[in-house]
Amino acid sequence: MALVDQWSSGPGLLYPLVDPQKMLDKIHSIFTFAEHARKGDIQRLCSTQMRFNHETNKLKLVLAISRTLEAGGWNHEAQRLFQSATETLNGLIWNSNGINNIEILILLALYHYYLDEEVLAGRITTLAARLCIEMGLHRRTVLEAKFPDIDERLDALRTFWSVLMLERSTSISQGIPFMIPDPHADPSLISLLGHMSSQAALSTRSPLRDKPSSALFALLEWSKLAGRAWHALNTAGEGDSEMRLDDLDYLDYQVVQWYEEVPEDLRMNPSGLKQRDEQHDSTCIQGVLYCQKAQLRNLIYQPMLELTAPITRNGTRTLRAVEIAKETLHMLADLNDKSPLVRTHPILFKQSLVAASRNLLSAVANGGSAFLENSKVEIRIALRLVGLLKMRSTFLTQLWQQLQGLQEMYPTRVDFPDNKALFSEYDDYRSSGFEDLFQLHPCV
Predict the structure, then answer these.
(1) Does residue 403 or residue 410 have the better pLDDT?
(2) How is 171-197 classified by DSSP, letter by letter?
(3) Nearest 10 degrees: CA dihedral of 72, 8, 92, 440?
(4) 290: which of 9, 96, 268, 388 fits an S-S bond (Cβ 3.0–4.6 Å)?
(5) What is the pLDDT of residues 107-144, one digit of tens each?
(6) Torsion 68-74-77-82 (CA) sign
(7) Buried (b) or exposed (e) across 167-202, using 16+ Cβ within 10 A?
(8) In 3D, which of 60, 100, 99 has the Cα closest to residue 80?
(9) Is 418 exposed, middle or buried (0-12, 13-18, 19+ CB in 10 A)?
(10) Could you state, in order of their start, the residue ranges of all structural domains in the chain?
């Protein structure tokens, strides 16, 4: 049950695919099933066995994701849960389309995503996005016709937006076009989600999931900006260079405006961060929304910092890009010092950390020692954060090596943190009660 709570306060906030109460009910039915199997109650066993359907597979994947997060990476118990679910799902691509199939595909993608297997996660998400288009979930008229029941329609709508947001997140970091571009998604679906969520909140369904989510709506608006950012970054070199930089300036302005319109209680405030020993939903959402803003702002100016000539020609923009990178690193360091989120959910913060560190590294490497003199503190912060998380990510290990290259360029100017101090920040492995369940009923 603790793992279901962890899902609800982490990935479930960003991707509301499953109802936490349904997951808890399914856990109860699984233990009931195991108890009947132990007693040899065949008649009741057959009745209970009928309940092992898509919901059971969703639960296994939710628990596998949560166990992966808890362990900080690959975990034997999580892998067993994952494999026991996927053994029955190999025919998903051949079966008729359905919301359950799409939800399971996204949970599969999220499992790989939180293992930092982003390429594989992106491929699975692309398949889920195609199924959404085939079902017509991107069109309001089709959605309303296929799902006349408000609860089923709300589930379908949440599933569609979860697919879209995960696809944007994985695609923009890999520079891959979206399967569902903005013009293909009915713009009224966002307002429809708000209206239907308000209606569902008055029903008898779980208030945890049916309460309107300001954070979800903010993330949906972010997904539009992500689409514009991808288009701008992947048309670099086409047309007039200066005009393109002006467009990037305007896009940066739009990202800042988006964040300022986020409700105040969902925005990250450095002075308002409090020391927390445990994860809190509000801090998680604040951190995620801030990092979404930081990732886009850093990505916008990344191409300009990769060559010496643009840095020289665009001094004001270069300084702005460096300040954005510095601000991002300071905020991540503050969040890491005052909560366990960066360590327990490293994937949520990886992209903004990578984007900021790369921009700072590019500015120092291509802009000269003047940038190094003014960025020593931030370089140490980047080294500390990347070093803290690098053993959980091959990609971060490569970035760590690139940052260490600064020591060869400026051997007397960069102080490196002590590796032992970094690794001591890892949480100890905590075993769970899954082994008891596996021993009781190895088919689960």
Answers:
(1) 403
(2) HHHHT---SS-GGGS-THHHHHHHHHH
(3) 70
(4) 268
(5) 999 999 998 888 999 999 999 999 999 999 999 999 99
(6) positive
(7) bbbbbbbeebebbbeeeebeeebbebbeebbeebee
(8) 60
(9) exposed
(10) 238-413
390, pLDDT greater than 70: no
> Could you give the C-alpha distances from 207 to 21, 197, 203, 213, in angstroms and in order?
10, 10, 9, 11
| Other CB atoms within 10 A of residue 104 CB | 23
| pTM exceeds 0.85 | no
CA-closest candidate to residue 310, choices 225, 222, 393, 237: 237
C-beta separation of 164 from 223 below 8 A: yes
pLDDT in tens, 23-54: 888 777 777 777 766 676 655 555 545 445 78
Residues 6+ apart with CB under 8 A from 297: 252, 255, 256, 324, 328
Q: CA-based angle 343:401:332, to the nearest 5?
A: 30
* pLDDT for residue 97 is more than 80: no
Length of the chain: 444
Output the pLDDT for position 444: 41
Coil, strand, or helix at residue 306? coil
Per-residue model confidence (pLDDT) at position 438:
40
* Rounded Cα–Cα distance for residues 162 and 150 (Å): 18
Backbone angles phi, psi at 170, to 5 degrees: -75, -35
Going from the C-alpha of 255 to that of each of 8, 242, 249, 305, 350, the distances in angstroms are 27, 20, 10, 19, 19
Residue linked to tokens 């199997």: 37
SS3 sequence, 113-163?
HHCCCHHHHHHHHHHHHHHHHHHCCCCHHHHHHHCCCHHHHHHHHHHHHHH
272: which 2 tokens? Answer: 């308002």
Question: What is the pLDDT of the chain when averaged over all its residues?
Answer: 78
| Distance separating alpha carbons of residues 187 and 174, to the nearest angstrom | 25
